[in-house]
């Protein structure tokens, strides 16, 4: 048996998301802490359970400083268990809420530093033909040295047909892109839209689009213009937000194009 598969003590449940629950676990051999994501595959036929496992196993081979490390996955009694790096400084949604409560804002440098890191992670996975499909503030983690890491990529495709997906649709899908609202396929550009939503949230400390029901939300995403970001931020930053939150996906850049815009290229040199 691979070492990640055995001898873990469950410390606590750290949260429940759209797809299953996350647990903090401790490896008995050396006390190292990990996160175990548990997803009930329930009624999926055996063959599809195995292909879900294969799909997730592929993610192990992705290796980037701004991506949460995957260590392995296995199925135990119809539950898919994914062992990954534990990020102990909290996710961006936690930090955004904290700032908001304190009545403060992130500085432009903080925002751009994180944004550039997330964009590079996204370029890396897109370059390997992997869609993230669930980019949002709670899937981006802060770690030491102001490093941010993108987590939970690629999982949602595996999970679309699991029993968990339907049952635990807990969150409001604030990051849905206009094309997906209109029932068009999810593409790389849809990840870019979600990236834009995260950037917007870092600037405004609130969602670019929000409503208390799905229909209202989808309407706003497709039809309405978001409020502008505060003018304490530079015009260049405002332009990046506008560029990402373009409704027509054909007009929206790929991440690789985003990283080639002079303003972002400059920032990459400055931060990395
Ligand atoms: P969601 O992403 O929909 O909020 P998750 O099941 O992915 O739901 O996560 C639930 C909670 O667990 C979130 O608060 C998230 O911050 C936390 N979490 C998930 N993965 C990790 C991780 N690798 N390290 C630390 N915390 C994590
Ligand atoms: Mg998550």
From TrEMBL:
- UniProt domain Protein kinase: residue ranges: 8-264
- Which residues does UniProt call coiled coil? none
Q: Which residues are involved in binding ATP?
A: 38
* Family membership noted in the UniProt record: Belongs to the protein kinase superfamily. NEK Ser/Thr protein kinase family. NIMA subfamily.
What is the protein's name according to its record?
non-specific serine/threonine protein kinase
């Amino acid at each position: 048996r691979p070492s990640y598969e055995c001898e873990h003590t469950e410390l606590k449940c750290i949260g429940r998301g759209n797809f299953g629950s996350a647990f903090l676990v401790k490896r008995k051999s050396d006390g190292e802490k990990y996160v175990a994501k548990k997803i009930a595959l329930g009624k999926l036929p055996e063959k599809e359970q195995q292909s879900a496992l294969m799909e997730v196993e592929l993610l192990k081979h992705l290796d980037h400083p701004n991506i949460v490390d995957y260590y392995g996955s296995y199925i135990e009694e119809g539950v898919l268990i994914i062992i990954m790096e534990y990020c102990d400084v909290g996710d961006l949604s936690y930090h955004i809420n904290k700032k908001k409560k304190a009545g403060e804002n992130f500085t432009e440098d903080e925002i751009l530093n994180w944004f550039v890191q997330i964009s590079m992670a996204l370029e890396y996975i897109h370059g390997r033909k992997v869609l993230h499909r669930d980019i949002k503030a709670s899937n981006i983690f802060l770690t030491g040295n102001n490093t941010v890491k993108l987590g939970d990529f690629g999982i949602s495709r595996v999970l679309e047909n699991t029993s968990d997906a339907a049952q635990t649709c807990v969150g409001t899908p604030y990051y849905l892109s206009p094309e997906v609202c209109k029932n068009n396929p999810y593409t790389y550009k849809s990840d870019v839209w979600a990236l834009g939503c995260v950037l917007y949230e870092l600037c405004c400390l609130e969602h670019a689009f929000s409503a208390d029901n799905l229909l209202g939300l989808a309407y706003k995403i497709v039809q309405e213009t978001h409020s502008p970001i505060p003018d304490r931020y530079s015009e260049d930053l405002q332009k990046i937000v506008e560029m990402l939150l373009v409704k027509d996906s054909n007009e929206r850049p790929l991440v690789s194009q985003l990283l080639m815009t002079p303003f972002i290229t400059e920032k990459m040199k400055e931060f990395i």
